[in-house]
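Anyone else keep sequences and structure tokens together like this?

Example one:
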Amino acid sequence: MPPKTSKICGWVTPQESVLALKNLVTKGLLLSKNVTSWRAPREECPPQPEQGEIIYFTNHVKRGFRPPDSELFGHLLHFFNVRPQNIGPKSMTTICHFQVFYEVFLRFSHP
């Protein structure tokens, strides 16, 4: 059966549950809640992320998409007004290199 699409905004109703996300943690595809924060989607059309939240699609995560889990990455997304799914692999690599240079080599932490 195909997923339900909202007639209001054309957004596919979320199908993931907390149990499905915990399964991704068990498989090593998602960081545990001790390390980072995540939640199952709510009935929203379109999705309304809370302050500081970034939307990831489980299908992307299952296929190996794992952007850096850092405050700096979130601030870069907000500053440039982009979403993780809009960043190409080479750009993601550049962001990771910048993060390592900034946080490890220069020993700066983001405020």
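And example two:
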Amino acid sequence: MAQRGMYATTDLRPLLVERGFRLSQSQVYRLVAERPVRLNLRVLMALLDILDCTMTDLIEPVPARGDRAPAGGSPRPPRPKRANVLPE
């Protein structure tokens, strides 16, 4: 089900609360307006549900600093960061 248009970060906060995420207004603003340093996978899944989109609609892979093209060819794809999975 597609959501109505969202025009402010304040529109996103109650939708996250419905899904069990109580983020402060400043956290929601940083999530929307800035490039997150970390993003909880469950919050990401909630955003995908709220926005009715896929991960590729929200995330654009970029090469890490220091990644260079190998001699004679195309650049290497970015290497994923190692996940830190914590028990609940």
